[in-house]
Each structure stands twice: as structure tokens, then as C-alpha cells.
Amino acid sequence: MGKLKIHVDQDKCQGHARCKSLAPELFELDEYGNAHEVGDGVVPAGLEDKAYLAQTNCPEIAIEVTEE
Amino acid sequence: MSDAESYLPEHPPVTDWVNDFDHTDPRWTENPYPIWDELRSASPVVRTERFLGCYMPTTYEAVRAIANDTEHFSSRRVIVRDVRPEQTAKAPPITSDPPEHKPAKQLLLPPFTPDAMKRLEPRVRAICNELIDGFIADGRCDAAARYTRHIPVRAIAHMLGIPEKDGDLFIRWIHEILELGIKDQQTLMKAAEEMDTYFAGHVAHRKTHPSDDLISTMMNARTKDGRPLDEAHVLGSLRLLLIAGIDTTWSAIGASLWHLAGTPADRERLVKEPHLMPMAVEELLRAYSPVTMAREVMKETVISGCPIKPGNMVLLSFPAANRDPAMFPDADKVVLDRKENRHAAFGLGIHRCVGSNLARMEMTVALEEWLKRIPDFRLDPAGKVTWSEGTVRGPRQLPLLFGKAA
């Protein structure tokens, strides 16, 4: 399995903040509470499950997880 | 408060839910879940002639489609009522459509981020414990009257910078606007006017006594071209924060305690495994979502294959969406550690509840503090649980036994 990369679609994110709660290592919130991936979005080894958990709990289907 | 219901104009009882639904029917208030299942198996969108014509999407997919479609559906009326007066009390951003919506919403977002809520958490924990101190020795209480309803009232009062002791006044206004107001225009307008007068007084006071609270945040807010908000906008948003912040969370906390009181296995599991709380809160929000919103159809369209015509309202039931088995396996079962949970309790799309982080924090703290001090409790068989009618659903009487009485 290659490395995972996450991306939050800013047109879809509405600031539910579920991802930040489930995977605080992978997401950060801006001053309006909208989510962004930390850094370049590459998921550190060991946090793959959290990336998928955040993706499958986002009410706006705003999180993409891709395998590099 | 509860005897006021008898003054409401009566709606004829429903005999055909699919073609004549009524979300104020006592059977809907008591137990809406089998009714929603019946509607959902009939069609993704149903319609009633009541309320001057109203659709209801019954599936998660149809609810999402409408919530995301601001071109055909307006938020200018957010409560389905018997009347549709031309003049409505605006409460930006909940009653705003694009393009006015985004700037109005952005003003309110920074004070409600998860980090801001963390700063408020110790005060909420203290409020919960002060309330529990007041009844724990009795071995019994009406948890709605003594606990759940006071937590959000005091928390939002704290954030707005208004006296927590005015709580009973706020609870009356909310009952008049959200419940009585469905059928009684005069009561609704009077409550809205009283709230505006109340907040106008607090706004005036801050002109000479600036403070660090949400009222001051709204007063100091500037539009993109640098002008202060007009007074109607400030008062409308303050009215919204008070109304939206109170009986919604009160209902969610109450429904959660009601579930735990009647489901010992879940209660014991949460006591033994407190780390499950964040997931459990999401699942309780899904299963017992309190808030139903509304839209008004502006242009003809099609939703999930069903034709939608202007001139009708839409009952936008996030609670019904959250019980759709096509979206949630075992939708009618509470699964405390449900792994995939894209529930819509706080809405979907641009109108996502601005206070969702506050509500989650209040729910988490209220349940944690209760379970720490009252781990063993059950419904009082001698009492009666009653539920609120209409737009926000939650227990308004919740008699519980605990300690020696349990």
C-alpha cells in the first residue's frame, strides 16, 4: 500500500469539525472553524485508519483520501 | 407553560399520513419514527395540503438535495406554520439566502469554534454540578425541569453577557415562538418584539459600558465596506442566538438521558467506557436529532424524481433523514460506537448550525457530569414523559428515579 494523502474540498466543507475531532493530527481549523489538511496532506504511517474515519464521518463528503 | 397548548386552534386528526401529514399531530409528537417509516416507504417526497401546502423529503438523499439547493429553495421562512405573513422577523444568517448569507454567517463563526468552546467548558461543568447539587439528595427529579433546560440557557446567557437569572423569560419566549407561534401569529410577533426590546436595552447599555461578549461582538462587527450592522440585523442575530441555542440543546440532552434511563445496557457501557462519549454523543444526535427546519419553494424543480412546485413550504426533517435505513444500517437502533455516521443533526450545506460545537460540548459535559454523579437511574413509572411539539423535539417532562429510589 502506498502513502495516503488527504484533501479537504473548501467548496464543500461547512465546518462541522468532525474530522478535527476524530483525527486532530491530520486536520486543522481556520478562524471560521472550517477544516484544512495539515501541511501537504500526506498521512503519516499509522494514521491511515484515522484518515478513513474522518472521511466516512464528514457530513458534507468534503474529504478526499487518495493513495499515492 | 404546558397548559397554554389548550388555546391552540385544533387541526383535524390525521387519517392519511402519506397525503395529509401534520407534524403537530399528537401522535407525531409522541412517537414520529413509525410515521416517518411509513412516509419514506411511500415516496422520497410527500405532500400535505395543510400549512397552505407543504412537502416533506423523507430520505437522507432528498433532504441533502434540498439543503444544498439554494436556487430553488429559500430560507426566508424557517418554520412551517399555519400562516405565511408577508412581513417576517428576519434573523440573519438562518433566514438569509446567498449572497447575503455568507457575510452574516462569517460574523458569527469565530466565537463558536471548538477552541472557543473549550474556554467555556469549565463554566458549563460548574453549571451542571450546581444543578445536580440541587436535587441529588431527593433521589428523584424531573430532569427536564431541573437539569437539561437550564444548561443551554445559562451557557448562552454567559456567552451573550446577559444575566443567567433571566433564563425563565428566555424559555417563555422560545415556547411562544417555536411552539405556539406555529398556529398563533400574534403570540409570535409579541414575543419577537419583547426580545428586541430586551436586547435593545442591553445594546444601549454597552454603548457606554463596552464588554467582551457576543452582544459586543455583534455591535462591533463591520460590513465589507466598513459600516456597522444596522440595528435590525444586530437584534435579529441576537434573537437567533438565544432561540437557536436553547431548546435545541435542551432537547438533545433530555432525549439522551431519556434513552439512557430506558436502556440500562447503554448506560452501563458509557459509565464503564467513558472514552466512548464522543462517538456516543454523535450517535445520540443522529437517533434523536431535535431540529426540523423549513424552506420555501421559489422555483419549480424535481427532487428524487418528485415534482416540486412553488407556493409550497418544505418541512426539512433532518431527524427523519437520520433514520433512513438506506444511509444508516440499523437506523432505528442506537449503536453507541457507530463507526460511520454522517448524520445531519446540525443540518447540511451552507446553513450548518453555527452553534454545533457549543451544542456538542454542552451535551458531552452534561452527560459526563450526570453519569459521574448519578450512574444508576431509570424512568419513574409513576410519572409521564412529555415531548415538545413542532420544530424542535425533546422531552419537556422527564421524571427520573436514582440513588436509593432506583
Q: What count of helical segments of chain A does DSSP give?
A: 2
Order of strands, main sheet of chain A, comes to 1-4
Indicate the low-confidence ranges of chain A by residue numbers: none
Instruction: Briefly note the structural class of the backbone of chain A.
Output: alpha+beta
Structural class of chain B: alpha+beta
Tell me what the CATH architecture of chain B is.
Orthogonal Bundle
Task: Describe the overall structure.
The complex is a heterodimer of chains A (68) and B (406). Chain A has 68 residues and is of the alpha+beta class. Chain A has two helices and four strands. Chain A has helices at residues 18-22, 48-57, and strands at 4-8, 27-29, 35-37, 63-67. Chain B is of the alpha+beta class and 406 residues long. Chain B has one domain (3-405): Orthogonal Bundle (Cytochrome p450). Chain B is built from 16 helices and twelve strands. Chain B has a five-stranded mixed beta sheet. Chain B has a three-stranded antiparallel beta sheet with strand order 4-12-9. In chain B, β6 and β7 (306-308) form a beta hairpin. Chain B is globular and about 60 Å long. The A-B interface holds A 14-18, 20-21, 29, 31-33, 53, 56-61 and B 106, 109-110, 112-115, 278, 282, 339-344, 346, 348-350, 352, 356-357.
